[in-house]
Amino acid sequence: MVSNLLTSLFKLIGFSYIITMLDPIVLIFILGIIIINYFLNKRQSKINYKYQPILAKHTRIFDYLYNTMTNFDYAKEVRVNKANKILSKKFRNAISKYSSDNKKFLSKQFATNIISGIVSLIQMLVSYGYVAYNAIINTITVGEFNLYIGAIYNLSGSFNDVVARCIELKYMSHYVDDYYK
Q1: How far apart are CA 159 and CA 37, in angstroms?
Q2: What percentage of residues in the chain have a pLDDT greater than 70?
Q3: Which of 87, 110, 148, 158 has the fewest Cβ atoms within 10 Å of its own Cβ atom?
């Protein structure tokens, strides 16, 4: 994980230099988009982190009910006490609650993904449009156009990798803190 972070940082420095040669405003624009992506990724990680205990609770309930309903050791108890209806009702209720919680989680995740997609589209349109405009007015050559397009794409990816790794490290530390509590 640390080697990926270092690789992304070196890529970041190299691609930043290339793009600065075109126009520093492009780099500033991409940095602005990356900051927005940082907050979106942070929100996504926070949503995932908060969902983990809920998912663990549902998993324990499902495991218990499934084990009770299918384990041969409990068959006589279930049959004698006529608990099959009770277990079936509890299982249906657990599925309903899980579906409700999962729907909330997925809707939050979907909203964040939509916003992230829109931001990425805006970044691509503006940065590629700017480079294409410079190629059309002959400020840059076709070869430089290809170079800058590749640099913008890779710079954005490197920034996103660095941000994702930092957020991942942050939430990994939360998991470790939770483990020791």
Answers
A1: 10
A2: 93
A3: 110
